[in-house]
Amino acid sequence: MPLLRLYATATAILVAAYALLPAHLNRSWIFLLVTLGVVPAVVIALRRAPAGWRMAWWLLLAAMMLYNIGNSIWIWLVEARGHSTGDGSFAELFLTGGSVLVLGSALVVVVQRGRRDVGGIIDSVITAVALTGILWDAVLLPALAGQDATTGRQVAVFTNVLVMAGTLGALLRISCAAEEQLAPVRLLTLAVGVSLFGNVAGALAVDPATGARADWTNIAYLVAYGALGCAALHPPVSAVTQPGETPVDDLSTARLAYLGTMMALSPLVGGGRVIFELPTDGVLIAISSAALIPLVMIRIARLAGARRRAEQALHRLANSDPLTGLPNRTALVDALHSALAEPADLAVLFCDLDGFKPVNDRLGHAAGDELLIAVADHLRHDLRDGDLVSRFGGDEFVIVTHGADAVEVIADRIRALAARTLQAAGTDVRIGVSVGVAHARPGDTTDDILTRADMAMYEAKKAKTIGTLSLAVG
Asked: What region holds the GGDEF domain (predicted)?
């Protein structure tokens, strides 16, 4: 924190000095001091990041190098060569390359911290294409056309705004999706947002006589560099690229409204400008619409798939026992209710483990859970089609089966279970099984057949012996 405070204070003084000193003085050294000061800050962040999680910082470091080269060329053109501005010059290549690397760094953060958040990346692209389309068509293109800007200048402005909008979308995704709000991520988001503002303002605030960009727009870039340096020096910076919470995607009304708005922005704005006979980039509208529609459809399909998987998972949780994975009592009752529609040769076996409580008391609940899992695995092994094994509750299991010889087949399997030595907490244990059998009768309800099977099980339990099968028919 002391290093962060020192850096923030020094940067704030330099930005204030740049803003307050008269424009005719040589203030380029202040600008370069601020931009160069970010480089060691990013190097410190790179060293703090755990091995294997440094790619984002390597990309950001490369971006800062390109930015500084571009800024140096820009200043050299203005100060040494007497150009009115460095915009549209060779410097733009380095500045645009730096912006692309910043986007790459943000996407690495999305992939690593967001646990390969493909949805977040798609959202970032949608945001970039939609916002850039509307900014370009409604604001930037008319302004640049009025300035007689060169094609190279127009391409540079468009690319920078597109890349910065995508970067901002990616960082906002990380910020909004995470329960833990990391200060470095917020500062990175601020830096990119201010830089995007600087790019747009720099394209608009131009002296019509000289073509020079308004000097105050440089302050936006200085603030962005300062926020980036503070993000790199903030103590929890090492956590920025480490896996965070898995982003939750939900096909909500708000998300559908967002996607619909992003898809409609360019056509609406472009169509409105055509109606009022204002200059419109029809090619851009066509391209952006052609890009956005499939992206939005893919995003909705992914969200719908996520919702479907979540519903299936909830259904499994509601109908399965969390310990053994067997169908629970609710699923058993539903299946038995359906099976009673054709009760011929239908039988229910109500099983209760003998000797389970002593194992649970002597070895602990974890050992008891281990024993229940072993019993469940044995009972469901080689299960016939149409048969159902469920955990009714506690150490009780219920089996629903069909067929004339089905009860004897399952009784043999349970007999083998009672004869086995099972493992619980590394200890050999033996259990017995008391089984009550009830055959379906015409007009039976689920309660009728389960009650008879339960009562028969208690009859069988009267003759219980550890390591044996006790079976009674009710």
From this structure: 344-474
* Rounded-to-integer distance, Cα 113 and Cα 106, Å: 10
Compute the mean pLDDT over every residue in the chain, rounded to the nearest whole number: 85
b (16+ CB within 10 A) / e for 90-129:
ebbebbbbbbbbbbbbbbbbbbbbbeebebbbbbbbbbbb
Q: Residue 315 is encoded by which pair of tokens?
A: 């259904």
- Fill in the amino acid letter for 127: T
Contact criterion met (CB below 8 Å) for 430 and 355: yes
Cα 463 from Cα 105, distance rounded (Å): 71
Asked whether 130 and 266 are in contact (CB, 8 A), the reply is yes
Confirm if 421 and 396 have CB atoms less than 8 A apart.
Answer: no
Burial level of 164, CB count in 10 A (0-12/13-18/19+)? buried
Q: In what order do the strands lie in the sheet with 346-354?
A: 388-393, 396-402, 346-354, 432-439, 469-473
- The rounded distance, in Å, linking the Cα atoms of 181 and 25 is 42
Residue 238 or residue 24, greater confidence: 238
Q: What is the DSSP string of 272-295?
A: HHHHTT----HHHHHHHHHHHHHH
CB 162 within 8 A of CB 287: no
Residue-wise pLDDT for 152-177, tens only, equals: 888 888 888 888 888 888 788 777 66
- Tell me how many helices (H) and strands (E) the chain has: 16, 7
> How many whole angstroms separate alpha carbon 454 and alpha carbon 435?
9
Is the C-alpha dihedral spanning 457, 459, 460, 462 positive or negative? Answer: positive
Are residues 335 and 328 in contact, defined by beta-carbon separation less than 8 angstroms? no
CA distance 332 to 343: 15
State if pTM tops 0.70: no
Measured between alpha carbons, how far is 302 from 308 in angstroms, rounded to an integer? 10
Helix, strand, coil: what percent of the chain each, to 5?
Answer: 65, 10, 25
- The residue type of 31 is F
